[in-house]
Each structure stands twice: as structure tokens, then as C-alpha cells.
Write a structure and sequence with these properties.
The structure holds two protein chains of two kinds. Chain A is of the alpha/beta class. Helix content of chain A is 40%, strand content 19%. In chain A, 58% of the residues are buried. Chain B is an alpha/beta fold. The chains are: A alpha/beta, B alpha/beta.
């Protein structure tokens, strides 16, 4: 366990070896659209379903290339899930997409009864998660989806950090049998995962393990956490970052290791602090290695209209917010 | 179809439906709970499907060219279990484990536990969407298999049913035949009092379906409707089967309280005598 613990602050891997140093920005939904198109060329069993948002979810690219394997179900999310379930029974590999709030909220019980209870090979890939949906406001900002998907038996839940990881996730879940929920976003996010990164379901990526604190993050908060870690390390605090892209099943080995070498674990998510990544980490560590944990996320609140940047500031999801939280936490 | 062979088939099917009803009553009595009324009302329809219309191999439940049956009204599980057992999917003795701990015969059908169940149901309104997905998948694979989906009339109060109704006609799913077990009753009373679903025929026709309105206990009519549905091209067929809840046992017929009540041992004895006639 000790071999990965550095004695002095090393240079941050993502910024030094590939990962484009967060300069390149792409939206995870765009990466999804491309990945789906490539997958469609390779595999005839892939079918894609959408609920009248194919332009926004980027499934439209697949639709254009393979119209015979694309099914627009219209504004009817419950039917979207059921139809995808039926297709999976005939051996197809359905990807069903719409906005996260509708996919998981409107059709939760269909996902529970039809997809998870029967353990169907249905891939639920939702876009427009979190507050960075922006101007559309709270009605369109899913900040509860991780909580309500995580609770379902048989469900695998993945929140990619960037476009690069998203592409790998889409390929990986196509080779995995069973229900999967992938949470993607609308806004462009920095590419932070290293060029040699290989995504594996259930395996977190550790950028660096810190002796003072470690930030366990998912989705867009990985880039924000790396920025915070950089600031803190410049100030002499050894703060590591872990990309917990698979929220279920949680990479408990990595978590345990991180918790054993530092004084504080901070979770960072663009999601409610109730039921999300912070809860998952707390549930595990409180039972195995009680550790001081601070959860950064949306505090039992709805989102609102504004630009992504404005909203991240308003809800305390910036690098500066993480820096402040960690400094106070380590006092 | 007009031959004597057909007449003979109908007689055999009627007898089979009677056997199905007896098995339903026996397993429900043994279980001590379950849905009697809606299982009995669907017995003739399910008999016609499993013992006349559907292509299926009980020894090979996943046979790729099989016709598919989705019991959207999952609470009528006993009628499906009886049909599966009498078809030879599993030993008849298993029926008496219904609803018991460890049994593959769950209170509502579970596809992971029992071969022959296409998909787990029980939460109303979801089966037709699944049937649509299967029908689309079969068409993509150019398979001639057909999909049958049985719904309750109370069930069609669920909004998802109408989402699925649109999808089936939008994608011209003529390999799909849905049947409504229109027994007129739901847990809280008469459907027309709880939440009126009529005019059912007009509604489905307006949604682009070919609709047949039949007596759901007339075996000849059921068989005829299922055959007509198969020949119809370009759109899905809905068979509105007018049925009687609790059909076959005089003291259960039309009684709303037997929606979710199992027969007592004394009632079972009387019921079996009645059916044996």
C-alpha cells in the first residue's frame, strides 16, 4: 500500500503526462454522440432510443447514420425505458437517452421494475445532469439522479470526468451485461484524464494520494478538484485527488487506502449531498475505517437559472470553495 | 376453419380452460392469498394462446423463434403459472408452492426465477412498452414470431399504456397483438365508477390500432380473433375481450372482493365440484 505514497509533493500527473492539462474542453454528451456512432459501425446489435431530445443528447448522430436502428419514442420516458427493455430481451443492446432528470425521475419505477428487477442489458445514458445545465433552471437540472439510481439492485452507475473517459465508458459498458446508468453533462469540461488512462468498471483513478487530505470526486468536479489540489499543494498541503467515476460498485479498495493515509476525505459532486457520492463514501468508510469526511455538493436545494459558471459559484462548487473547505477541515 | 377438426379443437380448448381454472383455484387456496378474480377471467384467453395459437417449446423456453407472451396484468400470475405447468415448462406440483418462501412462483411473475416468463411484471402499465420493444427487435431480425400482451381494463388507467399505444401504431407493429381482459372490475370497485375507461374500442381505434370486440369466454371467438390479428398487416391489433371477473365459479363471478382474495378450502371444494359439473 505504501508504494504509491510520495514523500514530497510530486508534479501532478494529469498536468504533466497527457490529459492535455485541462486545456481542451469537450462536453461529455458530445463524446457520447461520437462514441455511439463508432460503436454503431462496429456492432450491429446496438440500437438507440431517445425521447425527443436526440439533438441535445447527441444520439442524433447515430440516428442519422443508422436510421433503421434508431427509435424516437417521443416525449414519453416511461415508454422509452420499457421499449428499450423489450429490445434487450430480443438480444439487442439498447442505449436509451434523454435528460437525466426525466430519464431517472420520470421513469424511475420502470427502471426499477422492468430493467433492474429483471436484470436487463439496458444502457441508460442520460445527459444534462447537474446544475451546469444552466439557463433552463431547476426543472431541468438533475441533482438527485445518482441517489435514486444508486439504490437500485443490479444497477451499475458511472459518472465520467471528461470526454476522453466518456468514450471509454461507452465502449466498456457495451461489453458489460446488465443495467448501467451513465451520467453526462451539457457543458464543456476540461479533458483531465491522462492519455494512458484505461477505464475499468469499478476502478477509480488516483491522480495522487495526499497525506493531509484526499478529494474523492465524480464528473465535472474532478477537474475542479485537481485545480483545488494544485492550489493547496502550492501552499504546502498534500492533497490528493481520486476520480471515483464508478459510483456503484464503489472502488472500496482505493477508498480504504486513501482514508488510511490522510486526516480528511472530502467528496465533491455536482449533485445533492444527500444520497450521492458523498453518501456512498460515507456509508462505506463509517463501517470500515471511520474517517473525517466533508461532503461538497448541493445542500438540500434545487438549482436555478444562470450560466454554468455562475451556478457553480452560487452553489459552492468551485476550486476556491474546495480549498476553503479543506483548509477549515484540516484546522 | 369450418371443419370438424376445428370444432373438436374448440372442445379440447374448453376442457383445457376448465383444467386451468381448477389449477388456479387449487394453487390460490394452498397459497392462502392471491388474485382469484382476474386469473379466472383471463383463463380462456390464456388457454387459447398457450394451447392453440402460440408457437413455443416448453423444453426450450428461450427458443429464438418462439412467440412471446407478456402478462402485463402481472397479478394474474396464477393463470400464467397454470398454463406453463400444463404446457410442460415445469412439474405441476410446483404450482402448490405459489407465493411461498423460496418458490420460483413469486406473487407476481419474475423472469429471473422461472423459465418461460419473458419479463417480470406486477407493477401495472409496463407490459405493452416491453411488448413493443420485443416486436421491434423481432422485426429487426426478420423473425416471424409474434408478440402477445395481456392487459387488464383497470390497468389501462396507467398513462404509460397510452404512450405505448402510440408507439405500437407509430412503428406499425403488426406482429403485436394485445388483449384486454375487460372484466369491468378493479380493486376499489367497478372500473366505470373508479375511473371510466370506456369507450375502450374507440380509444384504441383512435390510437391507430385494429380493434376487435369479442366475448372473452367464447373460445371460438377468441381463436377467431387471434387468427384475424395474425393476418392483419400494417398495424397492431387490440382484442377487447369482454369477460367476467371470477368466471367459472358462480359465487366468485362479478364479485369485486375476489380481486385479491384466495378461496377458502370450503370454497375450493364447492368451486371444483361446480367446474367438474
Amino acid at each position: 500500500m505504501g508504494e504509491r505514497i510520495q514523500k514530497t509533493n510530486p508534479p501532478l500527473p494529469p498536468f504533466s503526462k497527457g490529459g492535455h492539462g485541462g486545456i481542451i474542453k469537450i462536453a461529455t454528451r458530445d463524446a457520447y454522440g461520437e462514441a455511439l456512432l463508432e460503436l454503431g459501425k462496429k456492432r450491429q446489435d446496438i440500437v438507440v432510443l431517445d425521447a425527443d431530445l436526440s439533438g441535445s443528447t447527441k444520439t442524433g448522430k447515430f440516428a442519422k447514420a443508422f436510421p433503421e436502428r434508431f427509435f424516437n419514442i417521443g416525449v414519453s420516458e416511461q415508454d422509452l425505458i420499457g421499449t428499450a427493455g423489450g429490445l434487450s430481451i430480443t438480444g439487442k443492446l439498447p442505449f436509451a437517452s434523454t435528460f437525466a432528470v426525466f430519464e431517472t425521475g420520470r421513469a424511475w419505477e420502470q427502471i426499477r421494475q422492468t430493467v433492474c428487477y429483471s436484470n436487463l442489458n439496458v444502457k441508460l445514458v442520460a445527459t444534462h445532469s447537474g446544475i451546469t445545465v444552466g439557463e433552463d433552471g431547476a426543472s431541468h437540472q438533475a441533482i438527485e439522479d445518482v441517489a435514486i439510481m444508486r439504490v437500485l439492485p443490479n444497477m451499475t452507475l458511472i459518472v465520467p470526468a471528461d470526454g476522453y473517459e466518456t468514450k471509454q465508458v461507452i465502449n466498456a459498458i457495451a461489453d458489460y451485461h446488465g443495467p448501467v446508468y451513465v451520467r453526462l453533462g451539457r457543458s464543456k469540461v476540461p479533458v483531465v484524464m491522462p492519455d494512458d488512462y484505461e477505464f475499468k468498471i469499478g476502478k477509480a483513478h488516483t491522480f495522487h494520494l495526499g497525506k493531509d487530505a484526499n478529494i474523492v470526486a465524480m464528473g465535472i468536479m474532478v477537474a475542479v478538484s485537481l485545480e483545488a489540489s494544485k492550489i493547496l499543494r502550492n501552499e504546502g498541503l498534500d492533497v490528493g485527488v481520486i476520480n471515483m467515476s464508478t459510483v456503484k460498485p464503489l472502488d472500496t479498495e482505493t477508498l480504504l487506502k486513501a482514508s488510511k493515509i490522510c486526516r480528511l476525505i472530502v467528496t465533491a459532486e455536482e449533485h445533492s449531498t444527500i444520497g450521492g457520492l458523498g453518501s456512498a463514501v460515507s456509508e462505506f468508510l463509517s463501517e470500515t475505517n471511520p474517517t473525517r469526511i466533508i461532503r461538497i455538493g448541493i445542500k438540500d436545494d434545487f438549482g436555478c437559472s444562470g450560466t454554468s459558471e455562475e451556478l457553480l459559484k452560487l452553489y459552492g462548487l468551485t476550486a476556491e470553495d474546495i480549498v476553503k473547505t479543506i483548509k477549515e477541515g484540516l484546522k | 376453419m369450418k371443419s370438424n377438426v376445428f370444432e373438436k379443437d374448440i372442445t379440447v380448448l374448453r376442457e383445457k380452460a376448465k383444467t386451468l381454472r381448477m389449477e388456479i383455484l387449487k394453487m390460490l387456496t394452498e397459497a392462502g392469498s392471491g388474485h382469484t378474480g382476474g386469473s379466472l377471467s383471463a383463463a380462456d384467453i390464456v388457454t387459447a394462446l398457450y394451447f392453440y395459437k402460440m408457437r413455443h417449446h416448453p423444453n426450450d423456453p428461450k427458443w429464438i423463434e418462439r412467440d412471446r407472451f407478456i402478462l402485463s396484468k402481472g397479478h394474474a400470475a396464477p393463470v400464467l403459472y397454470a398454463a406453463l405447468a400444463l404446457s410442460g415448462y415445469f412439474d405441476k406440483s410446483l404450482l402448490l408452492t405459489l407465493r411461498k418462501l423460496g418458490s420460483p412462483l413469486q406473487g407476481h411473475p419474475c423472469s429471473r426465477k422461472l423459465p418461460g416468463i419473458e419479463i417480470s411484471t406486477g407493477s401495472l402499465g409496463q407490459g405493452l412498452s416491453i411488448a413493443n420493444g420485443i416486436a421491434i427487435g423481432l422485426k429487426l431480425d426478420s423473425l416471424s414470431s409474434r408478440v402477445y400482451c395481456l392487459l387488464g381494463d383497470g390497468e389501462i388507467q396507467e398513462g404509460q399504456v397510452w404512450e405505448a399505444a402510440m408507439t405500437a401504431s407509430h412503428y406499425n407493429l403488426d406482429n403485436l397483438c394485445a388483449i384486454i381482459d375487460n372484466n369491468g372490475l378493479q380493486i376499489d370497485g367497478h372500473c366505470c365508477d373508479v375511473m371510466c375507461v370506456e369507450p375502450i374500442v374507440d380509444k384504441w381505434a383512435a390510437f391507430g390500432w385494429h380493434v376487435l370486440d369479442i366475448n372473452g369466454h367464447d373460445m371460438k371467438a377468441i381463436v377467431g380473433a387471434l387468427n384475424e390479428a395474425e393476418t392483419l398487416k400494417g398495424k397492431p391489433t387490440m382484442i377487447v375481450a369482454r369477460t367476467v371477473k371470477g368466471k367459472g365459479v358462480s359465487f366468485f363471478e362479478g364479485k369485486v372482493e375476489y380481486h385479491g382474495l384466495a378461496p377458502t378450502h370450503e370454497e375450493l371444494e364447492r368451486a371444483l365440484k361446480e367446474l367438474e359439473g
